[in-house]
Amino acid sequence: MSIVLPNLLLEEYTKILKTVFEILINYIYSGKLELANSDVKTIIALLIAADELCLNELCPHIEKYLLNDKESLKSNFVHILQTVNKFEQFKNLSLFCREACQKDPSLVLRADDFVTIEQEYLLEFLTKNNDFLRQIEVWDKLIQWAIAKSNNELPSDVTKWTNNNVTTFGILIQPFISHINFQKISLFLQVWQVQII
Question: Which Pfam families does the UniProt record give (predicted)?
């Protein structure tokens, strides 16, 4: 299936979300870009689609829109950070993320979407920033991350974990253990950590 628009041929763009496609069609025909009613994930998908479709005039406008919405940037920081790591051409967002992480690395941990961070990015983040983070905060976030990644194997209440749950948790966080300075965490958590390993 091909969709022909003025000066544009789209062949099998199944990666483009329907809502993003509708926004692009509206822009192509009306010259207006409506972003106010879209969530950040849709806007990021729109940014990627505009880049893939060589609608180069849209990318700086979309980046500027995102950069002006500080609340959404903070709550979706992980999604935005992972996007700019994959798509380096989004220079304004990339610069914002780099400067924000240098100024306050714990932004990543405090992001509403922290549990969506991919393991490789989390490892890279901890490798670069661990000395600047509160270890108890890292530990708490690793627990939340492991619960989210466990496919409902781990109850959200750690006091209800079984031995099997503790084993699952240990497997999930094993790559991160060397990045946690347990000497900076209370004795109770240190004992719990030793039991897990």
Answer: BTB
pTM, two decimal places: 0.77
Supply the Cα-derived Rg of the chain in whole angstroms: 21
Q: Phi and psi dihedrals of 110, rounded to 5?
A: -85, -5
Dist CA 151 CA 169 (whole Å): 12
* Separation of CA 20 from chain center: 19
Residue-range definition of the domain harbouring residue 163: 134-197
The answer to whether residue 175 sits within a structural domain is yes
Count of residues making up the chain: 197
- Cα–Cα–Cα angle for 111, 140, 128, rounded to 5 degrees: 65
Q: Report if residue 183 sits inside a domain.
A: yes
Compute CA 79 distance to the chain's CA centroid, rounded to the nearest angstrom.
Answer: 3
- The tally of domains found in the chain comes to 1
Distinct helix (H) and strand (E) counts, the chain? 11, 2
Between CA 113 and CA 124 the distance in angstroms is 17
Element containing residue 39 per DSSP (H, E): none
Chain segment 2-61, per-residue pLDDT in tens: 444 444 545 545 578 889 989 999 998 998 998 989 999 999 999 999 998 888 899 999
